[in-house]
Amino acid sequence: MDKRTLVNIIRFVALLAIQILLLNNIVLFGYYQPYLYVLAILLLPEEMSKAMVMMIAFLTGFFVDIFSGTYGIHAFASVLMAFVRPIVLGELVPFDGYDKYKDFLPGHYGMKWFLKYSLWTVAIHHLALIVLEAFSFANLGLLFSQWFVDVLLTESLLLLTIFATSRNQ
Length: 169
Known about the structure:
Layout: H1 3-21, H2 38-42, H3 50-68, H4 73-91, H5 106-109, H6 111-134, H7 140-166
Helix pairs in contact: 1-3, 3-4, 4-6, 6-7
């Protein structure tokens, strides 16, 4: 097992543990919740097969569902995120292409690139999550505000986590 695989496994376990043990218990104003576990999917290597990325995304969402009692909505949203990930990466490909030895971190491809990548994928993930959770468009304003605030909370937490962990390296 190479170092990069080990880092991804440790990241996967740590992010799931933080989500399940801490963040699942934090709901701001009764509606808003950050989902840090999506970072595990965002940072998977580009050369990893699409099937493997989708399997990891499913397992990630499945574990969150088990401990949240949400009956598959996180698994669905995570698989959808993994499905659109190559499309988003294809639209954002740098001039000289992706380096298979670099992670998708702001320090490697730039903050502007990372924000575009993470915002698109997280926004799609959260849209699926919120629509499936509500299973209705009856209160569209509340759904939109929940989606918007959840995306902002998650993005803020992603960036905070990335910068906090990169300072220790």
